[in-house]
Specification:
2 domains, 12 helices, 32% helix, Rossmann fold, amp nucleosidase, domain 1, 5-stranded mixed barrel
Length: 502
């Protein structure tokens, strides 16, 4: 068993914790991350061992507790940092810290962020144990149902022995700009705390049926299964000819097919697909593509982006279908969103509707160039198949069934050219979480002009258009991937007093 210290906590009663690992300063980012990992691995193993003993019939004699590791930097100057980056530095003097989870999963990210801090401020970072307990559930990465495993072996509730997830420690106050630092307390160093990240890592596995380890830094969201079918066909085709720099393809159930292999090497397809299945084209250093079918509606769009955001992706794009609002549009035309009418309502409490969601030049250019290259059209010919304009996202799929004169007037006043249910949510959450975002939609119906989305029409349209649309999205991601990160993660998404971690 791991050495324990039974007097660490001030909680009344007997508490068993691992022997504390003293704080230590590091001027090398790799060494700092190695220490974070040592603390986290030791402390989660401590919890798992005690839980295993409990399942075997050996109930703890008191509370069992272990703590997240933390990293801290302290500066004493208001000197302005001359940096072309939008992140990698603290906004002013003071102590800035954050709790850390899964340093194995975030090793590259943490190394980069800590290296920038050390370089930009010319001071060491301090690594140690925080005072934030690790909930037992988060010591298991595979979604183990701890309550079910222990029911027959405990005569008291699980929370009498172990710390359990506490929603008070998982809010989005930092990214929402609502976090208030009490006098003498430390400023947040990262946009999310360790419990908030852990919560999302478990939710991602639940909603997508793939482990967080497989998610890539470039994400495509879609609202139709047709895109998934085409993505899978394309991915398996890449591995068929072997001429690809993608290393593997992961499907729900963590079914992994590696380059050069004829079939899956591991994983079990789920009996039924999860709510928002994910598919991953794996590339070195997480630079591949993740596609998620979010289904229909702003609630799903918010749910999945709330959780994907903790992985700190470099960009996410929405590829889906929309209703064309202009008679000049044709079925199959593309809409490149440069603004959004936000009537989805799901983010109003976190990001008020009066907050503008700007178009990001880097993403807009990548998408427009991708449309040009894939369709082979330029200049006026390109404008014949793609319009740039405002997209309206609403929360009522059957808006046509009420007196629609009033919403149509609003759409006209906003200069909207397309209507759907997810894009504004995905863009707004990208803005809120500082994740570069973009939207390219395809017109699938024109309800104001008598062209409704009917079964036969839809099937013919999907077969004809989906492959090209998906190819455009992938080409845009390739262009974004080729950009320097400091260009993609621009200052446009940063507020007055930001966290140092991107």
């Amino acid at each position: 068993m791991i050495d324990t210290n039974k007097d660490r906590s001030t909680t009344p009663g007997k508490v068993e914790s691992p022997v504390p690992i003293p704080e230590e300063s590091f001027s090398d980012a790799a060494s700092a991350v190695a220490r974070l990992r040592q603390i986290f691995d030791r402390n989660t193993e401590f919890l798992r061992q005690h839980f295993s003993a409990m399942v075997s019939g050996e109930a703890p004699h008191g509370r069992v507790r272990a703590f997240y590791p933390s990293v801290r930097i302290e500066t004493d100057t208001h000197a302005r940092l001359d940096s072309h980056l939008a992140y990698g530095f603290v906004f002013g003097p003071g102590r800035h810290s954050t709790t850390i989870t899964r340093p194995d999963l975030f090793q590259g990210y943490l190394t980069d962020q800590i290296a920038l801090l050390i370089k930009n401020h010319n001071v060491a970072v301090t690594v140690g144990e925080s005072d934030q307990p690790i909930p037992l559930h988060f010591a298991f990465y595979d979604g183990t149902h701890v309550e079910g495993a222990v029911t027959a072996h405990a005569d008291r509730p699980l929370r009498d022995y172990f710390d359990v997830p506490d929603i008070a420690a998982m809010d989005d106050a930092i990214v929402n700009g609502e976090h208030e630092v009490a006098p003498g307390k430390e400023y947040p160093l990262a946009p999310f705390t360790a419990p908030r990240v852990d919560y999302s890592l478990h939710r991602l596995q639940h909603y997508t049926a793939t482990a967080a380890d497989h998610f890539q830094n470039y994400v495509l969201f879609t609202n139709y299964q047709f895109y998934v079918d085409e993505f899978c066909r394309m991915a398996h085709g890449l591995f068929g000819d072997g001429k690809t720099d993608y290393e593997a393809f992961v499907e729900p159930g963590n079914v992994i097919t590696r380059r050069g292999e004829k079939g899956p090497e591991s994983g079990t397809p789920p009996i039924r697909l999860p709510q928002m299945p994910a598919y991953h084209l794996i590339r070195e250093k997480g630079s591949g593509i993740t596609l998620i079918n979010i289904g229909v509606g702003p609630s799903n769009a918010k749910t999945i982006t709330d959780h994907v955001a903790v992985l700190r992706p470099h960009a996410w794009l929405m590829l889906g279908h929309c209703a064309g609002l202009r008679n000049s549009q044709e079925l199959g035309d593309y809409v490149l969103a440069h603004g959004y009418v936000r009537e989805d309502k799901v983010l109003d409490a976190d990001l008020p509707p009066w907050v503008p969601i700007p178009a990001l030049a880097e993403v807009q250019i990548a998408l427009e160039q991708a449309v040009e290259e894939v369709t082979g059209r330029k200049g006026y010919e390109l404008k014949r198949v793609m319009r740039t304009g405002t997209v309206a996202s609403i929360d009522n799929r059957n808006w046509e069934l009420r007196d629609h004169r009033e919403p149509v007037r609003r759409f006209s006043q906003s200069r909207a050219i397309a209507l759907e249910m997810e894009s504004a949510t995905i863009a707004a959450n990208g803005f809120r979480f500082r994740v570069p975002y973009g939207t390219l939609l395809c017109v699938s119906d024109k309800p104001l002009h008598g062209e409704l989305k009917l079964p036969g029409m839809a099937t013919d349209f999907y077969v004809r258009q989906v492959a090209q649309h998906l190819k455009i999205g992938i080409r845009a991601i390739e262009k974004l991937r080729a950009m320097p990160l400091e260009r993609l993660h621009s200052r446009k998404l940063r507020s007055f007093a930001e966290t140092a971690f991107q």
